[in-house]
Design brief:
- The protein has helices spanning 41-49, 76-95.
- By secondary structure, it is mostly helical.
- Among the domains are: 17-47, no CATH class; 65-97.
- The longest helix has 20 residues, at 76-95.
- The radius of gyration is 40 Å and the shape is elongated.
Length: 114
Amino acid sequence: MDRRPSTRSTKVKPQLTVKCGSCGHPLGNPLTHRCTTKTDFRRRKKQAAKPKPAPKPATGNAHEYASCDDDDCSRFQCRVYKEGLANGTEVGRQLGYAEGFPDGIAACPLSHQG
């Protein structure tokens, strides 16, 4: 009985840490736990406060290239479309597509029996 009792705990206790499935934080009491999810609200709020760039002014001659009736239109798209249409029409006439096929689809050299 001359020995002093030890101040250290001699029992080995299992340590169990439970983490929340949503936020990943340690879950002490599941009834009082509040999930904290990180959001980018402040960053988006800052971005919304920044002035947005002004939209480009619409040009006065903006129109659809396929429906352009002006033969002297200076827009690149209109000129290229009209040039390609004229070239394609001329090649088609040279190949005889204006007359058509006398026997219909049967005269076509490709196989359409698919």
